Amino acid sequence: MAAIPRLPEGFVWGAATSAFQIEGAATEDGRGRSIWDTFTATPGKVRDGHTAATACDHYHRYEADVALLQRLGVDAYRFSIAWPRIQPDGTGPANEPGLAFYDRLVDALLAAGIAPMPTLFHWDLPQALEDRGGWLDRDTAHRFAEYTAIVAARLADRVPHWITLNEPFEHMALGYALGQHAPGHTYLLDALPAAHHQLLAHGLATAALRAAGAPHVMLTNSYTPAIPYSGSAADTEAARAYDTLHRRVFTDPVLLGTYPDLGSFGLDGALPFIKDGDLAAINQPLDGLGVNYYNPTRVTAPEPGQTPLPFELAEFEHVNTTDFGWPVIPSGLTQTLLDLTADYGDALPPLWVTENGCSYGTGPDADGRIRDQARIDYLEAHVKAVAAAVDQGADVRGYLVWSLLDNFEWAEGYHQRFGLVHVDFETQERTPKDSFDRYAALIRDQRR
Ligand code: FCB
């Protein structure tokens, strides 16, 4: 077993999931329809037409899943709350059975000695709000604050860590710019209001959480170092532009209260959807910044006339990839954490790696055991990458593996398995993989 450097005292180890990807029970207890229910029901959107109607059936099996978390030995569990369970149409009074589910889950976690870390929005917008414009509509930010206040009034007395949004860049890019995720729009740069309104939602929700006494509030972004394809000035400039769009648009307003210069995107003047007071509302003090990291991004200058964007993406050569085709480059996590530390300085709150993991389809051998050595290697290398960043001055407080369970991986359906626990989607049988035991041992070793 490779030695893993010791992380600082009190470092939080965890695992993560999200509601739509695991819960199932899509029509139970008054749950409303989400944009992902619509998207999965649309032919051609999800690989092989997979839906999440049952997923991991976690809604009915949450007690067994909490027992798995306890066996894993984690300090914290990051899950998400499905807005359509709380407000089926995205507005109005709470749907009591929906709130009661998360109440039971929180109590089960606390009884198991595990800190609940809910994310309030992990991409499953109520369809009724999408019908009114979704995140392109400014009012959605106010609806989100209202929903947050309902949840916080019920749970803030027991929940130690709150996350407002998951990966607003990915939701804007995949959902509103490129159409690969729900709600499936292909607006390219015209998707930018979806960035701003999510950030405004984050700010307003943070205020609502504080008002309800929430002790610790974070935003989770996806981060990826933008690596220039070559040393050329054009590639360097393209990487800078990509970093602006992916990282700085979603971090500068939150931590600095300003947007970065978007001149390289042809956006020179004032953006009409940014109203007076918005940046102050977005720039709320935070207790932590969630970092989801999977891989770096290689960026090249665009071919003239090929794209309206000031960059193109390229593949890394000679690197291992996961089943998703994502390059395995652990040093990118060290770089991500150190770049944030250097670039935001005193404005940066403590960092939390709120997702990191890999897709490998490894299934059971004849003896039933799942020997997912590639996932063990991935996790060990990335935990070491976190330790290296801490060693070089990054203030990192926690690390949560994506994911506890194999689950519904968005447009890939059940084809990408990220779990420490294998799920047989026919029988719902859960089988901890070798990586589960390795992660449990790693956590035990760290506490010794
Ligand atoms: C992240 C998402 C998460 C999961 C992983 C693989 O972008 O937040 O739901 O799909 O990717």
Give a written overview of the molecule:
The chain has helices at 19-22, 35-40, 58-72, 83-86, 96-111, 127-130, 139-155, 168-177, 192-211, 233-255, 278-282, 331-344, 373-391, 434-447, and strands spanning 12-16, 76-80, 115-121, 162-166, 217-222, 226-228, 288-292, 297-300, 312-314, 351-355, 396-402, 421-423, 430-432. It is of the alpha/beta class and 448 residues long. The strands form 3 sheets. It has an 8-stranded parallel beta barrel with strand order 1-2-3-4-5-7-10-11, surrounded by 5 helices. Helix 3 (58-72) packs parallel to helix 5 (96-111) and helix 12 packs parallel to helix 13 (373-391). The chain is globular and about 60 Å long. It binds beta-D-fucopyranose. Beta-D-fucopyranose (FCB) binds at residues 18, 21, 166-167, 170, 222, 292, 355, 402, 409-410, 418.
